[in-house]
Design goal:
The protein is built from nine helices and seven strands; from the N terminus they run E-H-E-H-E-H-E-H-E-H-H-E-H-H-H-E. By secondary structure, it is α/β, with parallel strands linked by helices. The mean pLDDT is 97.
């Protein structure tokens, strides 16, 4: 489905990002992924991707740092020749009710979850515009659609991602580049592992369970593939019906 395409995935070494890297590689994409945490996990994933018979490389990069992102994308283009698909997935939470949320909690979340997406799109924008093809997929959240107590910073960043997605979609549509957002609900990853009210939460999900990273990866694959060529500026919920 993605044979020979070059995909860049941020926050690739675990959770949803890792599942996307694996799904893309299984479908023939060469995968460059950015990570900020464990180099060991990144190497382990790289080896797994290489075993699918595609090219794969891991790049340590803080997506919130514009210059670091710029340097990293220069290396990716040197290593892979181009970029066809960008998945902005790296994200963090600093949950607190707004009353006790510090300025730093707000800034850190916005810097990674929103400015980080700007930083990477800025790098691929001229490449995709020039080749008159490409896919940008931004991981938002249902928190950005409906809000969530304790997540003023996170919800604002994820709502911002939706505005960013629609604007990039409009700017690049005439160049044949599609830009869409995915809005997951509760997905089983490290990010939600610490969640204590799981039973109460699960009972409020119409489909009665949390989602899996692999399920989000299947949606990302669809949005990265030619099957979605007539879809742009869309926000697709994958939440078991939670935010309908
Ligand atoms: P996770 O915490 O397991 O993974 C996040 C990844 O982002 C990690 O690999 C981490 O190293 C990376 N990362 C964090 N800060 C970074 C930085 N400054 N530079 C580069 N990489 C950085 O989280 P999960 O659940 O896999 O989340 C992936 C995306 O999905 C995030 O954008 C998250 O907001 C979003 N999401 C997750 C939901 C869930 O229920 N797990 C629900 C809705 C959205």
């Amino acid at each position: 489905m993605l044979k020979g395409k070059v995909a860049v995935v941020t926050g690739g070494s675990r959770g949803i990002g890792r599942a996307i890297c694996e799904r893309f590689a299984e479908n023939g994409a060469n995968v460059a992924f950015l990570y900020s945490g464990s180099a060991e996990k990144a190497e382990e994933l790289k080896a797994k991707l290489l075993a699918s018979g595609v090219k794969a490389e891991a790049y340590k990069c803080n997506v919130a740092d514009f210059n670091e992102v710029s340097d990293t994308f220069k290396r990716i283009v040197a290593d892979f020749g181009t970029v066809d698909i960008l998945v902005n997935n790296a994200g963090i939470t600093r949950d607190k009710l707004l009353l006790s949320m510090r300025e730093q909690d707000f800034d850190e979340v916005l810097d990674v979850n929103l400015k980080g997406f700007f930083n990477t799109i800025k790098q691929v924008y001229p490449i995709l515009a020039k080749k008159r093809a490409g896919k940008i997929i931004n991981i938002s959240s249902i928190s950005g659609l409906i809000g969530n107590p304790g997540q003023a910073n996170y919800s604002a960043s994820k709502a911002g991602v939706i505005g960013l997605t629609k604007t990039v979609a409009k700017e690049l549509a005439s160049r044949g580049v599609c830009c869409n957002a995915i809005a997951p609900g509760f997905i089983k990853t490290d990010m939600t592992a610490a969640f204590t009210g799981e039973n109460r939460l699960v009972s409020s999900i119409p489909l009665g369970r949390m989602g899996l990273p692999e399920e989000v990866a299947s949606l990302a694959l669809f949005l990265a593939s030619p099957s979605s060529d007539y879809i742009t500026g869309e926000v697709i919920r994958i939440d078991g019906g939670l935010a309908m």
